[in-house]
């Protein structure tokens, strides 16, 4: 098989040099060119037709992500793209995922992970270095928690004052008769409130309802 043609887009000369040395010392891979800024990406691709681009997401004041997006929109050749970064933040990860990527490496472990990322990109797969993967997983978990909180807030807001009064004392684990005494209504009214609470929250029982509102501190705010 012919060697994988790799181009490096990196404004840090030390990192670019290290990558070049690692790649050129590895059988089956060739560095066909490099660029140190976003403006150099399109000419680099046009001149050398790399199979894979290793691209820093921050190139001085410019964005490697924006440059790759522009390259793809131009209708030019579409090499596989593995992004690299030294600093992770929500916006960088979101923008990279929206543009589309074939790999995302953190520079702290790029020396040990570039080969796996390049090989995966050539196969049409995606590799994330452990730090990047963990960051994205935390983002997803945070987004899920926020979505759940908003859903619970909306559900609680839709309840009547009487229903919310019952909801506030649910964490005490009282049976229905004692719940009724605590909120000064009849047992039948409490049962009706419990049914409405469970329906609004989309749960099957009062325990699940309690867990949801306590988890998000909804009762503490009302």
Description:
This protein has 222 residues and is α/β, with parallel strands linked by helices. The protein folds into 2 domains: 133 residues, 3-Layer(aba) Sandwich (Rossmann fold); 64 residues, Arc Repressor Mutant, subunit A (Orthogonal Bundle), CATH 1.10.10.10. The protein contains 10 helices and 8 strands. It has a 6-stranded parallel sheet with strand order 2-1-3-6-7-8, with helices on both faces. A two-stranded antiparallel ribbon has the order 4-5. A hairpin with a 2-residue loop joins β4 and β5. α1 crosses α5, α7 crosses α8 and α7 crosses α9. The model has no long low-confidence stretch (mean pLDDT 88).
Give the CATH superfamily of the largest domain.
Answer: Response regulator
The portion of residues forming beta strands comes to: 15-25%
**Computed CA radius of gyration, to the nearest angstrom:** 27 Å
Poorly predicted runs are none
Give the strand tally: 8
Distance between the termini: 67 Å
CATH C-level label of the largest domain: Alpha Beta
């Amino acid at each position: 098989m012919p060697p994988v043609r790799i181009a490096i887009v990196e404004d840090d000369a030390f990192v670019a040099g290290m990558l070049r040395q690692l790649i050129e010392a590895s059988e089956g891979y060739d560095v066909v060119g490099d660029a140190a800024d976003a403006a150099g990406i399109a000419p680099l691709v046009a001149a050398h037709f790399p199979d894979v681009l290793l691209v820093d997401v921050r190139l001085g004041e410019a964005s490697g992500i924006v440059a790759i997006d522009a390259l793809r929109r131009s209708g030019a050749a579409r090499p596989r793209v593995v992004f690299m970064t030294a600093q992770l933040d929500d916006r960088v990860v979101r923008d990279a995922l929206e543009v589309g990527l074939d790999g995302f490496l953190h520079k702290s472990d790029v020396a040990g992970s570039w080969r796996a990322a390049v090989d995966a990109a050539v196969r049409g797969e995606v590799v994330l270095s452990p730090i990047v993967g963990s960051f994205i997983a935390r983002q997803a978990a945070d987004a899920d928690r926020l979505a759940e909180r908003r859903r619970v807030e909306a559900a609680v807001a839709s309840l009547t004052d009487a229903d919310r009064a019952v909801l506030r004392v649910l964490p005490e684990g009282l049976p229905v008769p004692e719940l009724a005494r605590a909120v000064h209504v009849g047992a039948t009214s409490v049962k009706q409130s419990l049914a409405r609470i469970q329906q609004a929250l989309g749960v099957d029982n009062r325990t699940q309802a309690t867990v949801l509102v306590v988890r998000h501190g909804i009762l503490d705010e009302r």
